[in-house]
Specification:
heterodimer, A: about 80 residues, mainly alpha, Non-ribosomal Peptide Synthetase Peptidyl Carrier Protein, Chain A, 4 helices, globular, B: about 725 residues, alpha/beta, Rossmann fold, seven-stranded mixed β-sheet, 24 helices, flat
């Protein structure tokens, strides 16, 4: 899957789970500091990414990912790895 | 007051504006409740919620970032998860925030990545000149009506008062606030400083010294990081402002001290040292929260007793006697009444009453008798303060008596009045009345006498000005430098007795004449030179415990015996410690008869060099009867430590026994303190024993050991 497609679907998932507009999201956005994800939403995001991409992620590693761009790279590593 | 660079503590306690950075709308979470607490406490400044997602919190417009706030911000309360606190701190720096209270946990206290996060936070704050309280803390409270800041997650704003409470533990704070509310105890400032990444108890002591609302400072500590700064700060705050500092230091047990090589090391456990240094600084160390508040309310609410002479007014004989015993235990005296007081009491009390101290107004006493007795006692010039005891009997009008105590105490504001209404349910409303009126109340007369004694002794301690720190000029630093350099070059971690003795002598501590002999013949000649009888000890950098290795022979009487002793020592040591490098045998004149004492210095990780004194033998080994003081030592520190040991009367001369040369012991301790200050590479030092002769005849060090800090330590 190409990186652009992954990024598009990651942003859609974030917008849906955090109930925010896509325009508020940028590659450098920090999930907590910029997008306001609390601990429950962070766990929900991990689950939503797993469902969206039909993958399994190590929860500790996934929760350590802080920005949207890093999430795209992390998921791309699993999907294409 | 010489003190560390000032932190922005005005911005912590009295900010004109506060931003709660990371606030949320989720009720029952720290990020929500802190913002809500600031609102509900009636904060007099401006508060801004900073929330990445919520446009408003509790009806107050929120900002996505702290840099978006249009007006200046003095204080940021950061409640984000630890992983992003650095981002918040960086923005606080850009915004020009002066201080940040970082509530979030997940830093130094969790180790690993938490340590790095804390270091990163400190670096950012330092770069922007921001003072940090925390992280991992409850927050800060200022009850001043012109501020009314509750930037914490404590459930309720405490009442206004004159006690400041500082705590390393956040959770303890909430319990303390609840305890204090139940007893109508108010606070001036209340702060938990958590991991002490920046602001510590030392900074807070200096700040509270200047805080007019604070009369008494309470501190709960789990860890002392810079004991020398703490000692300096506490001493100067107490002496210069007269504000008492009461402390609880938890972690009283000390593992590892027993593994230390020297006597001083093994006796100077961290808690013993902490205890001694707190006392030296004038800090009142308390054992429990209850003990701390028992004493604090006496110091905060009532004048300090001018003398230790107390009057007890009671309606029950037993508790009166118990109180009298408790007073005696605390060094208090029952005041003897003047004739006028005796007449007054006789006139107002029934014939069956006890008119002497403790005054027993008898079980059927009502408020009029308490008023008469307490009033008469307080009017007596011999009485420094009064303790009122009540037991609830069927005719006792408890609330009326409480009101009378309040009124009578109020009419004599220069003398303290404490009360003990003994019981629980029946006396509750009377106690409540007393507590609301700031009459210190105690469930037990024992706690009451401890509080009275604390207040009295604190007042007495303020009368004593700073004592001089003696500095001896007749010392030879070069000798010590050479001995230490030689040992360091040889990679030795301790100086053998011969070198250690030279070091002591260079600092003016009397030592026994001695010569080192490399052969039996030299030993015989050396013995003749130093004078018989002699003690002979193996001279080896590798043998620390000479006696265990068979390396000591005492009371050698002539030259032939000295030669034989030399051979026997060499042979015993080569068998007990085959690889040891033996440089010969130290032939030393036998110590004269006298009283043995031990002197020492240990470098404590928190408090720096600490001096120790004790009587030798059983007193040290069995009873651990030793005293400590942090160096530098003033003359009163030294006099205090010598007199503090329980066995001191033996030195002073007991039951017709001789008095020993205490002045020389004191001088030796002062000289050792100077040595430890001049040479930080000395890690520990034992002079054991020092033989003390009768008063005026001196003392002499009979053995010594000096341990060195490893290179780079």
């Amino acid at each position: 899957m190409d990186k652009q497609e992954i990024e598009k679907r990651v942003r859609e998932t974030i917008a849906r789970v955090l109930e925010i507009e896509d325009s508020e999201i940028s590659s450098g956005s920090n999930f907590v500091f910029d997008l306001g994800a609390d601990s429950r939403q962070s766990v929900e995001l991990v689950a939503a990414f797993e469902e969206e991409f039909d993958i399994e992620m190590d929860e500790d590693e996934a929760l350590a990912v802080q920005s949207v761009g890093d999430a795209v790279d992390f998921i791309a590593g699993i999907v294409n790895g | 007051m010489s003190q560390p660079p000032a932190k922005h503590l005005d911005a912590v306690f009295s900010p004109a504006s506060v931003a709660v950075v990371g606030a949320t709308r989720t009720v029952g979470t720290v990020p929500h409740d802190i913002f809500q607490n600031i609102l509900e406490a009636g904060y007099q400044g401006v508060v801004y919620p900073v929330s990445p997602r919520s446009p408003s919190i509790s009806g107050v417009k929120a900002y996505k970032y702290v840099v978006d706030i249009p007006d200046p911000v003095d204080l940021a309360v950061i409640v984000f998860p630890s992983s992003v606190c650095h981002l918040a701190m960086e923005q606080c720096g850009q915004k020009g925030v002066k201080a940040a209270v970082v509530i979030s946990a997940g830093f130094r206290e969790v180790g690993g990545a938490g340590l790095e996060r804390e270091a990163q936070l400190k670096e950012i704050a330092a770069r922007h000149g921001i003072s940090i309280v925390g992280p991992n803390c409850l927050g800060a409270i200022n009850t001043d009506p012109t501020v009314r800041l509750n930037a914490s997650f404590a459930r309720k704003m405490p009442a206004q008062g004159s006690i400041a409470f500082l705590s390393q533990s956040g959770a303890l704070c909430t319990a303390v606030l609840d305890y204090a509310r139940g007893k109508h105890i108010g606070f001036s400032k209340f702060i938990s400083f958590g991991n002490k990444a920046d602001v510590s108890e030392v900074d807070l002591f200096y700040y509270l010294a200047r805080d007019e609302a604070t009369r008494v400072i309470l501190v709960y500590l789990e860890e002392v990081r810079d004991g020398e700064a703490l000692l300096r700060a506490a001493r100067s705050v107490i002496r210069e402002t007269g504000k008492p500092i009461l402390a609880i230091k938890s972690g009283r047990t000390s593992a590892g001290a027993s593994a230390a090589a020297s006597h001083t090391g093994s006796l100077a456990g961290s808690d013993e040292v902490c205890d001694a240094v707190f006392r030296q600084a004038g800090i009142v160390r308390c054992s429990t929260i209850e003990d701390m508040f028992n004493r604090a309310i006496a110091l905060a609410y009532q004048p300090r007793p001018r003398t230790n002479r107390v009057a007890i007014v009671t309606n029950a004989g037993g508790p009166g006697v118990m109180a009298a015993d408790a007073c005696a235990d605390q060094g208090l005296e029952l005041a003897g009444f003047s004739e006028q007081t005796a007449e007054l009491l006789k006139d107002k009390l029934p014939a069956t009453a006890n008119l002497k101290n403790p005054v027993d107004v008898i079980g059927d006493a009502r408020s009029d008798r308490y008023r008469a007795a307490l009033g008469a006692c307080l009017a007596d010039p011999a009485v420094a303060g009064a303790m009122v005891i009540l037991t609830p009997q069927s005719m006792t009008d408890i609330d009326a008596i409480a009101a009378e105590v309040v009124r009578t105490a109020g009419a004599c504001p220069q003398k303290p009045v404490y009360a003990s209404f003994m019981g629980e349910a029946d006396v509750a409303s009377g106690i409540d009345l007393l507590q609301r009126a700031h009459i210190p109340h105690y469930i037990l007369p024992e706690s009451m006498s401890v509080a009275f004694s604390t207040a009295y002794l604190f007042g007495e301690s303020l009368k004593v000005g700073p004592a001089p720190v003696p500095r001896f000029e007749d010392v030879d630093r070069a000798v010590v430098e050479e001995a230490l350099a030689k040992a360091s070059a040889a990679g030795q971690l301790y100086l053998p007795e011969v070198e250690a003795t030279r070091v002591l002598a260079a600092y003016g501590i009397p030592v026994l004449p001695a010569r080192v002999a490399a052969t039996a013949a030299e030993a015989a000649a050396a013995a003749a030179e130093v004078g018989f009888p002699v003690a002979m000890k193996v001279y080896s950098p590798d043998v620390v415990h000479k006696l265990d290795a068979g390396g000591v022979m005492l009371n050698v009487q002539d030259e032939r015996a000295a030669a034989e002793a030399f051979d026997r020592i060499i042979s015993a040591v080569s068998e007990a410690a085959p690889g040891a490098q033996v440089k010969g045998v130290n032939v030393q004149r036998m110590a004269p008869a006298g009283r043995e004492v031990i002197l020492g210095v240990k470098r404590d990780p928190a408090f720096g060099p600490v001096a120790m004194f004790g009587l030798g033998g059983t007193f040290v080994e069995v009873f651990r009867d030793v005293a400590f003081r942090a160096v530098p030592l003033d003359v009163e520190d030294v006099q205090g430590m010598v007199r503090e040991v329980r066995s001191y009367p033996i030195l002073a001369g007991v039951r017709g026994g001789p008095a020993y040369d205490v002045a020389m012991i004191e001088q030796c301790i002062e000289r050792l303190g100077q040595l430890a200050l001049d040479f930080p590479q000395i890690a520990e030092l034992d002079v054991n024993p020092v033989i003390v002769l009768e008063a005026g005849r001196g003392a002499v060090a009979a053995d010594a050991r000096i341990g060195l800090a490893p290179e780079g330590a």
